[in-house]
Amino acid sequence: MTGGPIPRQARGGEVAGRVRGETGAALPGVAVTLVDSSGQQVARATTGDDGTYRLPAPGRGVYVLIASAPAFRPEAATVTVGDAPAGLDLVMTGATGLGGVVRADSTGVPVMGATVTLTDFRGEVIGSYLSGESGEYSFGALPAGSYTLAVNAPGYRPTAVAVTMTDAAVRQDVDLADAAVIRGSVHVPEAPRPWPRITVSLLDESGDVVRSTHAGDDGRYAFHDLDPGTYTVVATSYAPVRRAVRAGHGRTRLDMHLA
């Protein structure tokens, strides 16, 4: 924060100046607010393309100038307004960044092409990127606050992690668990075409139905994104057929035959 030149045509009873980044580049679209000694807002504006702003002051006195913008730390400075225009430039620094690596939980191998999505505390999406060749991802400067990092990739179970941004850069590595898949075909001997509607249900070890689907016209079915474990597959058309299956990491094939 430094005193600086006043833009041309500034008048008495005004606070005017320019907002720049750490590199010296002008920052457009910065919200600039002037408050009095009691904390009441007296003027508000947004910096132009060249980073300049101009705010009217209601009279002589001491005021506080506040600047805020996404991805930057807010800045505040005291300014004294007299009979002539007061000039005040502000320099804003970038907020903290977030980055890390996405890996397979079972092997530790980096996962390339994982979709990494960041949302704020309201659930609004801040950004979404694909992890690189080494599983790396990064988000630029972020204001301090609470965020949710969600990661998903084909063949893995999606996961979400709570992240708190403070005044320092945050590294958050994410391990994705392998997803189990049960797939196969239901065969109906000498069935008329079109095939009868076949319902395929997936039961957990407690016997509760966790998934249900319909076999396609060719009799194929699939259950994706499963926790490894023991399941029972039930195919129902005219009479149900029940088969137990053990699902590990990756794909497990189970064909069914309806009598």
UniProtKB/TrEMBL annotation:
Protein's name in the database: Uncharacterized protein YfaS (Alpha-2-macroglobulin family)
Key words of the record: Secreted, Signal
SUPFAM superfamilies: Carboxypeptidase regulatory domain-like, Cna protein B-type domain
InterPro entries from the UniProt entry: CarboxyPept-like_regulatory, Ig-like_fold
Family: Belongs to the serine-aspartate repeat-containing protein (SDr) family.
Any single Pfam family the record assigns to this protein: CarboxypepD_reg
Superkingdom, natural source: Bacteria
Secreted is among the record's keywords: yes
Organism: Amycolatopsis thermophila
